[in-house]
Design goal:
This protein has about 90 residues and is of the alpha+beta class. The chain has one domain. Strands 1-5-6 form a three-stranded antiparallel β-sheet. A three-stranded antiparallel β-sheet has the order 2-3-4, with helices on one face. It is globular.
C-alpha cells in the first residue's frame, strides 16, 4: 500500500448558521437546491446542495464548500475543522 498526502489547496467556504440563508444562497448560486425549516423542538433547518454526486443536505452548523473546480458540497464541522485551516 502506498501512502498519499493531500495537496495544499485553498477553497472558499462558509458555515450555515441558520440565520444566514441569503448569504448561503448567494454563495451556492445554481447549486442551491432549496431550504426546509421543519417545526421541531430543536429547530432543525436544512439546505439542499446540488452536488456532482446528486442532492446532499447541509444541516445547521455544516460548512458549505466551493471546490477547486467550482463544485459545491456540504461538510460536517468536525471533518472541516480537521481538514482545513484559515489561509
Amino acid at each position: 500500500m502506498t501512502k498519499y498526502r493531500k495537496k495544499p489547496v485553498e477553497i472558499d467556504a462558509m458555515q450555515w448558521t441558520g440565520g444566514n440563508l441569503q448569504d448561503c444562497i448567494d454563495f451556492l448560486g445554481a447549486s442551491f437546491g432549496g431550504h426546509s425549516a421543519h417545526r421541531t423542538p430543536n429547530g432543525k433547518s436544512e439546505i439542499k446542495v446540488l452536488t456532482l454526486e446528486g442532492h446532499h443536505v447541509a444541516s445547521r452548523g455544516d460548512y458549505l464548500i466551493r471546490g477547486v473546480a467550482g463544485e459545491h458540497y456540504p461538510c460536517k464541522p468536525d471533518i472541516f475543522e480537521a481538514t482545513y485551516e484559515p489561509a
